Amino acid sequence: MLEIIDLSKKYKQKFAAQGINMFLEKGEIIGLLGPNGAGKSTTISMLSSLVVPTSGDVRLMNESTIKHPQNIRKILGVVPQEIALYTDLSAEENLRFFGEIYRLKGAELKQRIEEVLEQIGLTDRRKDLVKTFSGGMKRRLNIGVALLHNPDIIIMDEPTVGIDPQSRNYILETVKRLNKERGMTVLYTSHYMEEVEFLCDRIYIMDKGHIIASGTKEELKNILSSENTISIKVERANVEFIQLLEADSTVRQVKVQDRDVTVIVPKEYNLFQKISQFAEESGTALISVEVKAPTLEDVFLHLTGRALRD
Questions:
Q1: What are 178-229's pLDDT values in tens digits?
Q2: Which CATH number is 2-220 given?
Q3: Secondary structure class of 263 (helix, strand, coil)
Q4: Comparing C-alpha atoms, which of 53, 59, 64 is closest to residue 9?
C-alpha cells in the first residue's frame, strides 16, 4: 500500500534520516522505534508530505506522493506527538473546525462528529472546553481529529505520552479496534515497548537516521538467539559492580534500572561464577540471578546501546 524507497533528508551538512526503506501493507500495524534523535519524526514528516525529502521517494499504490502529495493527504490521518487542539473551544467545536478543514460539510460532518465522539469515548463531554480536559482526554480528542475524514492510513506519533494508565489502555484498545473493524493501516511510534508488543505486526528500529533492523517480533528476538539475557536483582546497584561487569570482555551489554541489572552475553559463556565474584569484590548484595528469554527491549538495547526510553 505504501512504500518508502531510499528516503533521505539532509539539513546543512547532517542527515536527519538517510536511505530509509520501509513498506506498509494494507491492514497492518507497524511499529517505528528508536531513541530520541533517531530520525523518526523526520521520517514521519516526509511520509505525511510535510517535509520534502532530499532524495528518495514515497509511493502510494505505486504512485509518487512527492510529486502528487494530495493523494496521500486525502487518505492519511496524523496524530502528532504534541497536543494540537484549540483549548478555548469545546470538543465538538474542535471536531467541527478540523472537519471543515478536511472539507466535510453538512450532514456528513455532523454524522462523523457523532461517530468519532463515540469512538473516543467523549460523547458526554462534547460541550466542555478542552482546557478543562485531563491529559488523557486531550490525547483521545487529538486522535478523534485524525479520524474525522475516515483515513485509510493513520500515523500515531507517541499518542500515549504523559497520560494515566486508564486513558492509555483506552487508546490502545481503540487502535486495535480501528485496525480490526475497519482494516485501518497504522504506523505507530512509542517509548513504551509493551505497547509495541501488544499492537504491532511488524517493527522497524531506527538509530542515527538509519533503519538498523526490521521484522516481526519473533524475527527480531531471533537476533539474540545466540545470546543469553541475564537478569540480576541487587539490594543496591553498586557502581563498582557495574564497572566490573562492563569491563568483562564477554559481556556485550549492561543495562541498569534501579535495582535491576540486565546483562547480555553469548550463550556458550557461563557468567554466574563471575557475577558472584564481582558481587563479592564490590560488596554488592545479590537478591536473584536468572536467565531470561530475550525480549524486544533486549534486542533494542543490543542494537542501539540504549534503552527505548533513554
A1: 899 888 999 999 888 889 889 999 999 998 999 999 999 889 888 877 888 8
A2: 3.40.50.300
A3: strand
A4: 53
Largest CA distance in the chain: 75
pLDDT tens string 106-121: 999 999 999 999 989 9
How far CA 188 is from CA of 35, 193, 254, in Å, comes to 14, 11, 28
- Nearest CA-CA partner of 123 in 98, 88, 95: 95
Strand partners, 9: 17
Domain ranges of the chain: 2-220, 226-293
256-282 residue pLDDT tens:
988 999 998 888 888 899 999 999 999
Instruction: For the beta carbon of residue 32, count every other beta carbon within 10 angstroms.
Output: 26
Query: Residue for cell digits 528518495?
Result: 56
d(CA 250, CA 247): 9
Residue 13 confidence class, pLDDT cut points 50, 70, 90: confident
pTM for this entry: 0.80
d(CA 139, CA 82): 9
Distance CA 89, CA 127 (A): 9
Q: Which CATH class is domain 226-293?
A: alpha beta
DSSP, collapsed to helix, strand or coil, labels residue 252 as coil
CB-count burial class (<10 Å; 0-12, 13-18, 19+) for 93: middle
C-alpha span between 160 and 195 (Å, rounded) = 9
Q: Residue for cell digits 486531550?
A: 138
Axis crossing angle, helix 135-147 with helix 106-119, rounded to the nearest 10: 140
Helices (H), the chain: 40-47, 69-75, 91-101, 106-119, 135-147, 165-182, 193-199, 217-221, 239-247, 272-282, 296-304
pLDDT over threshold 70, residue 310? no
